From TrEMBL:
PANTHER family: LEUCINE-RICH REPEAT-CONTAINING PROTEIN DDB_G0281931-RELATED, PROTEIN KINASE DOMAIN-CONTAINING PROTEIN. Signal peptide: none annotated. GO terms for molecular function: transferase activity. This is Transferase.
């Protein structure tokens, strides 16, 4: 069932659109919802990539885009969402590879789930400086290197990364 541009509940748009069997591209009309603080799109059948207009939702605190059939690459425009507290993006389709997103200005972030997003490279050191983090899931990506030593300040966080790195994480948190 496609979401129809400009006719989808013109006065009252629900913020949780998860599990509705929506299909097709995400309507550009959603870019006008600049006062939204929560948007959940998970478990639908959208097509194409995550649109760049997502970056226009500058007040967004909770953004869930999990299991939506979107294709990669991971949108770099996510870095514009500095109010994020809960970011969950997972299961991007295709073979497009992306670098780790620039999230250095998301100081309030509590949950960071970027699972199976075809992210490659190393985990940036600044992520460990986000001391409000309580859950980090970077599993099923193409990350290399060790977990940054700055992660030792995240002793109260649940972390999921590549199997090879779990040993290093355990070492940091127990020594």
């Amino acid at each position: 069932m496609p979401i129809i541009d400009h006719h989808f509940f013109p006065l009252c748009i629900p913020r949780d659109l998860s599990s509705n069997r929506f299909s097709g591209p995400l309507p550009a009309a959603l870019a006008k919802l600049t006062n939204f603080t929560l948007l959940k799109l998970s478990d639908n059948n959208f097509t194409g990539t995550i649109p760049k207009f997502i970056s226009q939702l500058t007040q967004i605190e909770t953004l869930h885009i999990q299991g939506c059939s979107f294709e990669g690459p991971f949108p770099s425009s996510i870095s514009d969402l500095t109010q994020l507290i809960d970011l969950r993006i997972s299961d991007l389709k295709g073979d497009a590879v992306s670098p780790f997103p620039q999230l250095m200005n998301t100081y309030q972030i509590v949950q960071l789930v970027l699972r199976n997003c075809h992210i490659n490279g190393t985990i940036p050191d600044y992520i460990g400086g986000h001391t409000s983090l309580r859950k980090i899931d970077l599993s099923f990506n193409n990350l290399t290197g060790e977990i940054p030593s700055s992660f030792s300040s995240l002793s109260h966080a649940d972390m999921y990364v590549n199997y090879l790195q779990l040993y290093f994480l355990y070492f940091y948190l127990t020594t």
